[in-house]
Amino acid sequence: MNHKHAPRTIHPLDLADIDDQLTDEEKAVREAVRTVCEKEIDPHVAQWFEAGELPTVRELAKTLGEVGLLGMHLDGYGCAGMSAVDYGLACLELEASDSGIRSLVSVQGSLAMFGIWRWGSEEQKQEWLPQMATGDAIGCFGLTEPDHGSDPGSMRTRARKDGDDWVLSGRKMWITNGSVADVAVVWANAGEEHGGIRGFVVPTATPGFSAPVIKHKMSLRASVTSELVLDEVRLPGTAIFPEVRGLKGPLSCLNEARYGIIWGSMGAARSAFESALNYSKERTQFGRPIGGFQLTQNKLAQMSNELTLGTLLALHLGRRKDAVGLRPDQVSIGKLNNVSKAIEICRTARTILGANGISLEYPVIRHANNLESVLTYEGTPEMHTLMIGQALTGEAAYR
């Protein structure tokens, strides 16, 4: 039997009509974030990137807090309590503007705020989470060290018990928001007698704490990146996370941030693909738009397919996270696949734009450079490959 249907509109950025799988509420969240990005970020981000600074970071944090984006997937304490899919869609739109802006939100909400929300004392939660949710306080997350990235268990930062106080000494590296933060969640080795790796809530005004800005970056230039220096930083006993011990604490925070990257990387990919698609229709060579040539269409089709598959994977993992939660290896599947595919899309888009592909008049080279950082932070491709390998074989191959 033949059934006649009204012609469906083709959406070039969503040929598979993934939007049909989203609720009206989820679409509203996405549109709200996109509106903020178009007004507050997109007109300025290329200039910020070229200058290598984010001069309005505090004002921007407050704007993002006003619309409920900071810690939006957390419950209580002034947080919006939205779903994992809502948060993922927000990350996608933020990173379509710039990876550095998504990093600002991810570090605030999924690392610093989540760490306090999941592992902090009630006193720590009450003191910090409400003002972080509004953007009145900015947080950072200190785990990576100059000589210890993929192997955080070997960290050199130490926490020494001194009476009722704790004294922290050490250095952390590549810390987003570090030099503008009001509070840092810092992980330090307290020694076996005190549970090994422990988390501390460190007000950045504490004597001995400093955060020099890292300069000369060619990636994530529209983002504040710093070193944290802890020189005999004395904290009260109430500064420590009371229960969590070992790497369970920091790794749980990293998994939250990695989940946002699964979505965010598809935002960068979408932006690069859209730019290449539009350019292919406007750029004329040999008497016709370059989008009319088979080689260009092959590139566009491949980019479209990878964007579709990556977005479907992000949505599946988001639905699963909301329903039953995600295992670490499932998060690794998403980050390993989506970031690598997003880089491929950006590089292919660059070839379609030709020489214009390296100009900041277009977003492509900015996204490509940013994704080189996204590829290795929150777990390198090698580490995520080994996490998947361990899930498949039952054998840990890290050492």
Automatic annotation (TrEMBL):
Residues 140-233 form the Acyl-CoA oxidase/dehydrogenase middle domain. Keywords: FAD, Flavoprotein, Oxidoreductase, Transit peptide. Residues 23-136 form the Acyl-CoA dehydrogenase/oxidase N-terminal domain. Residues 245-392 form the Acyl-CoA dehydrogenase/oxidase C-terminal domain. Pfam families: Acyl-CoA_dh_1 (PF00441), Acyl-CoA_dh_M (PF02770), Acyl-CoA_dh_N (PF02771). One of its GO terms (molecular function) is flavin adenine dinucleotide binding. One of its GO terms (biological process) is fatty acid beta-oxidation using acyl-CoA dehydrogenase. Belongs to the acyl-CoA dehydrogenase family. This is Glutaryl-CoA dehydrogenase.
